[in-house]
Amino acid sequence: MSQLGVPELLIIAGVLVLLFGAKKLPDVARGVGRSLRIFKSETAKLRDDDDDAQPAAQPTVQATQTTTPQPQQPVAPQQIPPAAPVISAEEQARQLEEQAARLRAGAGQANKQA
């Protein structure tokens, strides 16, 4: 695979100037820089989360006295809250359309009053 030389980089720079214009290139570069910075910080957080998720080696404690095991108490199953009623996509779309119509009507009345 060939490496990029000076002529290739000049051609790429010329195409960028044609696409974005000379005035917008600093803004584009700034946006790309911010995006890369955010991407790097998020990937670093993911790596840290993965390191935290792995259990650390727990030191073994040796008891000098023997203890009798305590009987375990039965654990009550957790109560699962009742699920919200499932609404179909069509029903959700209808509700959203109704809300939008109400908002439009309210905005129309506000414009008439102003």
From TrEMBL:
Name the InterPro entries on file: TatA/B/E, TatA/E
Pro residues bias: where? 71-84
Task: Enumerate the subcellular locations listed in this protein's record, separating them with semicolons.
Answer: Cell membrane
**Which GO terms of the cellular component aspect does the record hold?**
TAT protein transport complex
Q: What processes does the entry annotate via GO biological process terms?
A: protein transport by the Tat complex
Q: Where is the composition biased (Low complexity)?
A: 54-70
What positions belong to coiled-coil segments? 86-113
Topology with regard to the membrane? Single-pass membrane protein
What's one Pfam family here?
Answer: TatA_B_E
Q: Where is this region: Disordered?
A: 41-86
What's the family? Belongs to the TatA/E family.
Q: Which NCBIfam families match?
A: PRK00575.1 (NF001854), tatAE (TIGR01411)
Per its record, how is this protein called by name? Sec-independent protein translocase protein TatA
- Tell me what organism the protein belongs to: Nonomuraea glycinis
Underlying gene:
tatA
